[in-house]
Amino acid sequence: MKRRFRSSGGELAYVDEGEGPAVVLLHGFPTSSHIWRAFVPSLAARHRVIAPDLLGYGDSEKPPEAALGITAQAGYVQELLEDLEVEGFAAVGHDVGGGVAQLIALDAGARALVLMDSIAFDVWPIEGVRMLQATPAEQESTELVRDLVALTLDLGIAHKDRFTEDLTKSFVAPFGEDPGAFFRAARAIDGGGLAGREGDLAALDIPVFLLWGEEDPFLLTEVADRLGELLPGSTLALLPGCSHFIGEEAPETIVPLVAEWLRVRYLRAPHAHDHPQPLIQLRPPS
To answer: What is the C-alpha to C-alpha distance for residues 181 and 61, in angstroms, rounded to an integer?
Structure first.
């Protein structure tokens, strides 16, 4: 069951499960915290897992005049964390949520960072988003939202057995009563917030894990390579045969991989044979 928090921009819905060092999960466009449904129960075995619907998305409020860019979203998330009295945390972000994660790592002191097919630098918004931003108000409809979400998932999921009607419905439903909210969210993807902050990112002294689908058509692997070169001590894992929504395509691999990386690099906890463990194990550098 989701909880509610009144931020300065509007009310946020969020998941808060488990106990231990906090992990904050941040989704992208046009999704919601539903994208983390396989991650939450696994990570909650060791962590306090906090997964908000960003303002304007999912079950969160969709105020017409609220700022929805990543700088504003990072501020709302920081307000939530302050209200929950969370200080140290790991940030995990996908897509636009990866941009939010980078900002809260820079400005709110995240202790570890996981970026999955994330926006970065000044390489966004991509052309497809610019087309959405140009949609005339009179064409904004639930039917068009459904078609656009379905197209995004179709392009962003290489394993077509994971691209289902139910998945499409789960991300269309929050915009059902206000299709304009979908386009407001799209128009907020403006490229602001991260452009020009390469020096700040390079100065981050925290462990960073980059996970990328090799066939991502939206954010190419060149973005991952550039991040990997810039961020000191980062680890990059490319997922062959996967596209943009890697958590949907390969949760059996991605979820335990993220959990194990967090154990090693964030918790710095030893391997415990009596605790459920993923098949893939990472070891800290000697």
So the answer is: 10
3-state secondary structure of 202: helix
Give the residue ranges of the chain where pLDDT is below 50. 273-286
Q: Token digits for 173?
A: 């439903």
Q: Are strands 3-6 and 22-26 parallel, antiparallel or unpaired?
A: unpaired
**Domains in the chain, please, with CATH?**
3-267 (3.40.50.1820)
d(CA 148, CA 255): 27
Which pLDDT belongs to residue 272? 59
Q: How is the beta sheet containing 89-95 ordered, strand by strand?
A: 3-6, 11-17, 48-52, 22-26, 89-95, 112-118, 208-213, 235-239
Angle of the 70-83 helix axis to the 96-108 helix axis, nearest 10:
60
Name the pTM for this structure.
Answer: 0.93
